[in-house]
């Protein structure tokens, strides 16, 4: 039995590799699978070992792994990470109208006792309307659509968007079985504390 060295690794897609070198088995599992249920990690271990020892892969493990990876969540994440990692991007929190770092710090003081560590704050490259903003745990980044870096966007609207993503930071995605619970009850209750919630939501509906 060789020694094992196993790590999560930032591949550009959902990938895992195994290599035997000088008596040590080097295993790299895509960091997109960090937090995957144990059954999935076991399936990956089985597949990798079967590969390196040239043994048949049990269909149960193959199916389990394939289902998990092709589930919507994983493909979306992989796509996002590929976009981010695949190209060199210019990251900047400072827009033409709004500075995302300032907004983060202001909200951090107001609602979180200044306790949240600021992730990379960045405007998206495209004027994406379908994704207003998202928190990207793979890069610890909050990405906000450039649509909001505009004078006609009231400050409370951009603040609400950033506040929502900060709640994602505060309440990391929990796994319930293999289902992701994204906006749990605590999250929703805390979101209601934003004073101009209704005005902000009303503005977002006009986009
Ligand atoms: Zn959300």
Question: Topology, pairings included?
Answer:
Elements: E1 3-9, E2 16-21, E3 24-30, H1 38-52, H2 59-70, H3 72-86, H4 100-112, E4 120-123, E5 133-136, E6 141-144, H5 155-170, E7 174-176, E8 179-181, H6 185-191, H7 197-205
Parallel strand pairs: 1-3, 4-6
Antiparallel strand pairs: 2-3, 5-6, 7-8
The structure holds zinc ion (ZN).
Zinc ion binds at residues 164, 168, 182-183.
What does this structure look like?
The protein has seven helices and eight strands. The protein is of the alpha/beta class. A hairpin with a 4-residue loop joins strand 5 (about 135) and strand 6. The model has no long low-confidence stretch (mean pLDDT about 85). Zinc ion binds near residues 164, 168, 182 and 183.
- Indicate the radius of gyration in whole angstroms: 20 Å
Shape estimate: elongated
**N-to-C terminal Cα separation, in Å?**
60 Å
Mean pLDDT: 85
Order of helices and strands: EEEHHHHEEEHEEHH
Binned strand content: 15-25%
Distinct small-molecule ligands in the complex: zinc ion
Q: What class do helices, strands and sheet pairing give? A: alpha/beta
Largest sheet, in brief, is:
3 strands, mixed
Give me the side-by-side strand order of the main sheet.
1-3-2
| SS elements, strand count | 8
> What ranges have pLDDT less than 50 throughout 5 or more consecutive residues?
none
The percent of residues in helical segments reads 40-55%
How many helices? The count is 7
């Amino acid at each position: 039995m060789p020694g094992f060295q196993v790590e999560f690794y930032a591949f550009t897609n959902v990938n895992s590799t195994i290599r035997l070198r000088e008596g040590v088995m080097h295993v790299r599992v895509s960091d997109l699978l960090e937090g995957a249920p144990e059954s999935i990690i076991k399936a990956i271990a089985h597949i990798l070992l079967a590969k390196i020892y040239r043994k048949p892969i049990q269909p149960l493990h193959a199916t389990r792994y394939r289902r998990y990876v092709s589930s919507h969540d994983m493909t979306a994440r992989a796509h996002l990470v590929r976009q981010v990692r695949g190209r060199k991007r210019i990251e900047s929190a400072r827009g033409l109208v709004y500075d995302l770092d300032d907004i983060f710090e202001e909200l951090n003081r107001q609602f979180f006792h200044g306790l949240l560590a600021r992730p990379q704050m960045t405007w998206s490259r495209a004027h994406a309307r379908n994704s207003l903003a998202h928190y990207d745990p793979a890069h610890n980044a909050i990405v906000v659509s450039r649509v909001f870096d505009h004078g006609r966007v009231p400050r409370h609207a951009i603040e609400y968007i950033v506040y929502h993503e900060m709640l994602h930071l505060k309440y990391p995605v929990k796994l319930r079985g293999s289902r992701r619970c994204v906006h749990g009850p605590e999250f929703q209750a805390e979101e209601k504390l934003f004073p101009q919630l209704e005005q902000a939501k009303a503005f977002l509906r006009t986009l």
